[in-house]
Design brief:
8 strands, alpha/beta, 4-stranded mixed beta sheet, about 130 residues, Signal recognition particle alu RNA binding heterodimer, srp9/1, globular
Length: about 130
C-alpha cells in the first residue's frame, strides 16, 4: 500500500492574490474555489488518475488570520523552461515577487525570491534548450 502526494497547502492571508501569482508563474489554472481557499493545478485531477500513477500535485491556498513569521521550512524550486534563470527572475519580479537574502551567499546558481506574501522560493537551473 502507498499514498500519493496530491496537494501542497499554503497558509496565506489572501488566497486569490497568491493563486493569481502562482498561476502566472507556473502556467496553472484555478480548478476549485471555496470560501477562503483556492486550488490551482496544471491538470484536472481525478481519483482514478491519481490512483493509477504518480501525478503532479495541486496547490491549495487557504486563508489564515496570522501572517507569515520567519523563514519557510519548506519551499518550492521553479525551473524556467524557455529562458535563463536571470530572465525568469526578472519576469517574476514584474509579477510581484521580490529577491530575498536568507544567507544563501553569492554565486550559488539559483536565485532566492519571495512571493507577494513573503513565502520563499528558488528559481533554479534553466531547462531551456541550449542556443548554438
Amino acid at each position: 500500500m502507498t499514498s500519493r502526494f496530491t496537494e501542497l497547502v499554503v497558509d496565506c492571508h489572501d488566497p486569490e492574490r497568491l493563486a493569481d501569482f502562482w498561476c502566472a508563474v507556473l502556467d496553472f489554472k484555478v480548478i476549485d474555489r471555496a470560501e477562503g481557499q483556492v486550488e490551482i493545478a496544471s491538470w484536472e485531477p481525478t481519483a482514478e488518475a491519481v490512483r493509477a500513477r504518480q501525478t503532479p500535485p495541486t496547490i491549495v491556498f487557504i486563508r489564515v488570520p496570522e501572517r507569515k513569521a520567519g523563514k519557510n521550512r519548506l519551499h518550492l524550486d521553479v525551473s524556467p523552461v524557455d529562458t535563463t534563470t536571470e530572465a525568469e527572475a526578472a519576469r517574476l519580479m514584474a509579477l510581484g515577487a521580490t529577491t530575498v537574502d536568507i544567507g544563501q551567499g553569492p554565486g550559488r546558481g539559483w536565485i532566492v525570491m519571495a512571493d507577494p506574501e513573503g513565502n520563499e522560493f528558488d528559481v533554479v537551473r534553466s531547462l531551456a534548450p541550449a542556443v548554438e
